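Researcher: Going back to the complex we discussed earlier. I've cleaned up the inputs and rechecked each line, so this should be the final set. Can you rerun the prediction on the complete assembly and write out the structure?
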Amino acid sequence: MGNGTDGRGASASVARYERIADQVRNEIRNGELKVGDFLASEASLAKSFEVSPGTVREALRLLVSDGTLSGRRGARKTVLRIPRPASTQEEFRSFAQWATAHGRQPGGRVVEQQWQIAGEETGSAIKVDPRSRVLRVLRVRSLDGERVMVERTSYPERLGILVESMPPDLESVTRELADVHDIVFAGADHVFSATVCGQQDAALLGVARGRPLLRHLRVSRSAAGEPLEVSEDRYLANILSVAVSNGRNVNAIGWLSAGESGWL
Amino acid sequence: MGNGTDGRGASASVARYERIADQVRNEIRNGELKVGDFLASEASLAKSFEVSPGTVREALRLLVSDGTLSGRRGARKTVLRIPRPASTQEEFRSFAQWATAHGRQPGGRVVEQQWQIAGEETGSAIKVDPRSRVLRVLRVRSLDGERVMVERTSYPERLGILVESMPPDLESVTRELADVHDIVFAGADHVFSATVCGQQDAALLGVARGRPLLRHLRVSRSAAGEPLEVSEDRYLANILSVAVSNGRNVNAIGWLSAGESGWL
DNA sequence: AAGTGGTCTAGACCACGTT
DNA sequence: ACGTGGTCTAGACCACTTT
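Model: Rerun complete. Updated structure for the full complex:
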């Protein structure tokens, strides 16, 4: 019709409805659409974008579910808030990628790294034989040069072999796995809790014992559902928090550093 | 075609694709489909359910996005895990509803309740005039009779009037607002952090000072996007945690009590 | 009563994984 | 080469909000 390749199907690499969603996001960021404004009806959007109604709906579904637009049956859609710069859908992949996207300098180094027998708990978390070996890595990560978190990650053997050969001060293991080895983190399960800073963590983070830490358990998966890593992360609670948003369907999730209040 | 009312549109109260999704969920729970099994193709499912392909896709989209099924282009879908009993999509509405759904006895009482001027921070969180009044409520909540969290909630005037007249030991304010006043919590933004137990919290929870607390900031919204409350909740970290799951689209989110490991 | 969004139909093409 | 899922078309009906 008026497209890259020619009519139907996915034309380029990005789906039509995702490009439409981005276009609407940009209109909101540019101020063409303000918070509280009504959105044009789906029918008229379909005409102006020259797509069928279903495609527009697909696009708007993304914006409704991440809380950018309201969505009630029969009611005109309204702009609820300005979407965050980096499409938050994609954020909860990697701390380093989040930091970079927000103009912060992520850093980190491996403190300890060794092969261990998985054991019951780790084995069931990443679905490997409890007797198989996993690579256990202890990392300290920093933001703009300041240490903010301790990370204790276990990789199944297949990934451990790849991670083992990476430089110890690599900025983003996740990015390296994606770019070089085509192993992409597609989702994760998380549990949030809290703990107080013990002796080892205090030394690693360079703070006094007794400080509150946000405890973040995480099992990351590929798109095929294969567990890629299990990690226990501990954040200095007054410096780094984790933000989650849940709507009808989608939840965005990302990090917040001290003083940031863009989320709530 | 062979439906409640007659062909098209939503027939009963629940959409066809949601019922199909539930049916597939049940097949997994019953063991008809085991973890790792391939799902029948969308085309054949469409035939057996007597719906059009798009409707099946809508159903499977739900299961893919909450991590129950895998979803890669061109690849047969597989069962990734057994979905949790209560559709986790719906859980992160209310602590009391989560507890009830899990067979636990939620409890709680209002410790303090008063009208205050909103102020800058609260005002911007729930989008009301900073000079307007809000009802600020301090609650202690329990699980099976054991105190587990402290809740400091601010309601805008419209809701505060309703909440004020509720009994102080009401099990679920959220349910009361939904059932009686038709005010439904549809989504929320959350920030997780940590803190240590101070004097007031220690007294309220009946524990010693210095214990780690999971700090949970929350702004809840209606489906129209209207902010309904802002709350700062503090959980005894060793007893109650919060679980989040994020996939391609959806994130489920709910609570976990001590010893539970169903999530990871 | 009119308009809008939510749901559904019955097809089609294409990218991708698998054979 | 084939099957599958992801995307898209061009319609329709119904529930709900708004006027």
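Model: Worth noting: The CA atoms of residues 217 and 232 of chain B lie 5 Å apart.
Researcher: Good, that matches what I expected from the previous run.
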